[in-house]
Amino acid sequence: MKKIAIDAVYATNPVNILYGTVTNVKPLEVEIHSKLKLTEEFLDVAEHLTRHERIVTIEHQESANRELGDKTEIDKLNTTYPSSSYKHNYVKLIFEDGLKKGEKVILVRMQGGHKFLVFDRYREGKKIWSYQQNQ
To answer: Taking a C-beta distance cutoff of 8 angstroms, is the pair 109, 116 a contact?
Structure first.
């Protein structure tokens, strides 16, 4: 009975998590392994991995301690303004950091296996605190 239930779940092709590498940007192509490359007609991409806009509020306080993941820094505002803090409402930010060739991505295979969602970028554990400069 248990085997029949497990086989029934596998037969419906439930959602799977896969890893891939961006091999081309325009048109988008992601390689899962050497025998499987997904082209853009099979891929949906999470908005945060594309060029997009957001409206935000920016607040800043001079000389505040900032936790930056692996270190703490004191943020010193280099300004001649007498105020030690500021706030800007309704600022439009344009995020330009879309997917790039060679990046590692997490994919979610939709039920049925014909559509994949590029969910996020990822880094291997040993590389999480290294940042590439000037790309």
So the answer is: yes
Burial string for 6-34 (b: 16+ CB within 10 Å, else e) reads eeeeeeeeeeeebebebeeeeebbbeeee
Place of tokens 């930010």: 93
pTM: 0.68
According to DSSP, the residues that pair with 103 across neighbouring strands are none
Q: What dihedral angle (degrees, nearest 10) is formed by the CA atoms of 94, 95, 98, 102?
A: 140
Which one-letter amino acid corresponds to residue 73? Answer: E
Q: List pLDDT tens digits, range 89-135.
A: 999 999 998 999 999 999 999 877 789 999 999 988 777 776 665 54
**Chain centre distance of CA 44:** 13
